[in-house]
Structures are given as C-alpha cells and as structure tokens.
Amino acid sequence: MSETVRLTPEEMTDLSLKVLSHVGYGPDHAQAIAELLTTCQMDDCQSHGLFRLFMCAQTMQAGKIDGHAQPQVAPSDNAIVRVDAQGGMSLLAFQKGLPHLVEKTRTHGIAAMAINRCFHFSALWPEVEALSAEGLAAMAMVPSHSWVAPAGGTRGSLGTNPLAFSWPRMGKDPFTFDFATSAFARGEIELYKRAGKPLPEGVAIDKDGNATTDPQAALDGAMLTFGGYKGSALSIMIELLAGPLIDDLTSLESMEFAQGTGGAPYHGDIIIAFDPDQFSGGRRQANDARAERLFADILDQGARLPSQRRFAARARNTARGYAEVSAQLHHDLLALLD
Q1: Does the keyword Lyase apply (predicted)?
Q2: Is 48 a catalytic residue?
Q3: Residue 44 lies inside a defined structural domain of this protein
Q4: Contact, 16 vs 30, CB < 8 A?
Q5: 263 lies in the same domain as 288
C-alpha cells in the first residue's frame, strides 16, 4: 500500500456522502458535512478533513444525535439570530442562519448568531471566512468537552475552546486565524496516536496530573492551555460567551451530557459579525489601506500571516485537481462502509 492516495474534490465529497449516509445521516446533513470536510482536506487541514468522518460515525453510534433534524431560525427584530439545531450537527444550522446574519449585520453594523442544541466537530475558519467573503469581519467561538485543565489545575474543566477570526481583503485571501486555546488540538493528539508518535513537551498531563508525551495518556488525562494563565483565561472567556451567554452548555456540562458515549461534543456556537462600512463611518477604503500597510510591514520582516500555508495548499491542490490523503486513513474510511 502506498503512503498516500490522490483524491479529487469530487471523490472526497462522494466518499464522505457514502460514509455519512451509511452511518445514518440524512441527505441535508450529509451534504453540509461533506462540503466542509472536502474544503478542509483541500486546504491540507488533516485534523479537520476526512479524518473527522470517524467522529461523525462515532457520534451517530452514540445514539444521541438526530441525523435528520431540520434547524429552526427564530424570528427577531434585533441584531441576534438564534438558530435551534434541534439536536443535529452544527453545519446545517450555520448554513440556514448565515443569510440572516449577513442581513442583520448590514442593517445594524454588528450582529451575532447563536446556534443552540448542536453537535460540533468542525473547524471554525469556514464559518468566519463565509462572512469575510461577504465583506464582513467575523469571529466565532465554541466550547467542547472538558478535556483541558486550567492553568495550575490537574484535571479537565475547560474545552479545547477554539477562537476564529477573519478580516476581508479586497482581491486577496482574507486574514484568518483559527486556533484552539488548548496547546494542542484534540484531533492532533488523535493523529499522533495513529502515527505512533510522541507529543511535544508541555501540551498534556496524565490522569494523575503528571506531564506526559504519550498520546493515549494525554487522552486519558487532560490537555493544557497555551500560554499558561493567559490561555486559560481566554479559554474561560470562551466558555462564558459560547455557553451561559447564549443559554447553552459549558464544556463540563457537554461532557456530562455525553455520559461517556463518545462522539462530537454537544453545546452551542456563537458567531459575531462586523460591517467595516458602518464601523469606519463610510471610510472603508482608506481604512482598508491602513490594514494593508500593517500586513505589508509584517510580511516585509519575513514573518507570515496566519493561514498563509493553508491558502497556499488550497491554491496548489486546486490547480492540480486533487489532495493527497494518507493511504491508511483512506483504507480505514472505506472500512466504515462495511
């Protein structure tokens, strides 16, 4: 077996649809998930690409998700869009609520979307980039399961709690970042385990609170936040904004809800969008130029902007019409169809 296989976007989507349909997702959810996984894989985002089909299957097998749920968008006359995912995956709910969020942001200058009662496994950058594609700046936050110990702690209280942001740039890829507030993403630890590789120092502790580089010991113990107390405080903020603020679960409560069944965490998702035209008082063009001067100064020093490598991978894979996927991963995914 070769080390990698080449898959076109159509082949990735087709494989995803087959797996998702086979394990119990309805056509609407399967399509939304398949599109997201293909997008991430074409960006060489291995931890959130086709690999995530395993979590989708595990979530269905856990018996708590509704693979046919149709999200409901609540009517409102303010700047908040509320979408009830009805116990389904978040991606379809995001698609349903996105046009309303864009409309409200252009009306009010700033607006937010709260997605409630959703299972969430996916990267956040596609959400914020969907808004920057509309000319809006945006940020998104979610909790997860309580896999992460707070700074100075010995057990998981926090989620991996990612934060994503995207800034639109005329004629250029947006300025986008998407990172977990844990020192390592959960999916990355799982990939290290699959590869039989030790973790870097300082990213996890075992079940007794001792530092470990063993992926399985980390999965059985707890992850650590990046940046010590600073990352820990940022993670707690995300717990609050994406949990109690929007009337949804914290990572501790999400873990309790799962009752040890595995699969994707169950909680909420908050996305906040900003209209640069209104915030700049009609001087968007001049202020865009100021932003570009900042980006240029960063690049002139030899530094890179977040997501540059991802955008380069997207351009490369799009030009050649395929992305490379681990042959073992491809083999294991096909086994899900048995």
Answers
A1: no
A2: yes
A3: yes
A4: yes
A5: yes
Q: What is the mean pLDDT of residues 67-82?
A: 97
Is residue 1 over pLDDT 60?
Answer: no
- pLDDT tens per residue across span 37-50: 999 999 999 989 99
Same domain membership, residue 17 and residue 131: no
**Both 36 and 150 in a single domain?**
no
Structural domain including 328 reads 1-61+308-338
Check 16, 35, 48, 146 and give the catalytic one. 48
194 located within any domain: no
The CATH number of the domain holding residue 131 is 3.30.1370.60
The yes-or-no answer on residue 166 being catalytic is no
Asked whether residue 117 falls in the same domain as residue 164, the answer is: yes
What distance in Å separates the CA atoms of residue 224 and residue 211, rounded to the nearest whole number? 10
Write down how long the chain is: 338
| Per-residue pLDDT at 2 | 59
What is the chain's mean pLDDT, rounded? 96
Q: Are residues 285 and 251 in the same domain?
A: yes
- Each residue's pLDDT tens digit, 99-136: 999 999 999 999 999 999 999 999 999 999 999 999 99
CA dihedral 85, 89, 92, 97 (to 10 degrees): 40
Cα–Cα–Cα angle for 78, 81, 82, rounded to 5 degrees: 120
Q: To which H or E segment does residue 334 belong?
A: helix 327-335
Which runs of E-coded beta strand occur in 194-338? 204-205, 222-224, 266-274, 323-326
What percent of the chain stands above pLDDT 90?
95
68 is catalytic: no
Q: Domain count of the chain?
A: 2
- Given 11, 47, 108, 292, the catalytic residue: 47
| Residue 28's CATH number | 1.10.1530.10
Asked if the structure places residue 45 within a domain, the reply is yes
Q: Are 126 and 133 contacting, i.e. CB atoms less than 8 angstroms apart?
A: no
260 occurs within a structural domain: yes
pLDDT at 8: 98
Q: Is the pTM of this model over 0.85?
A: yes
Active-site residue identified among 188, 239, 267, 326: 188
| 8 Å CB contact between 101 and 136 | no
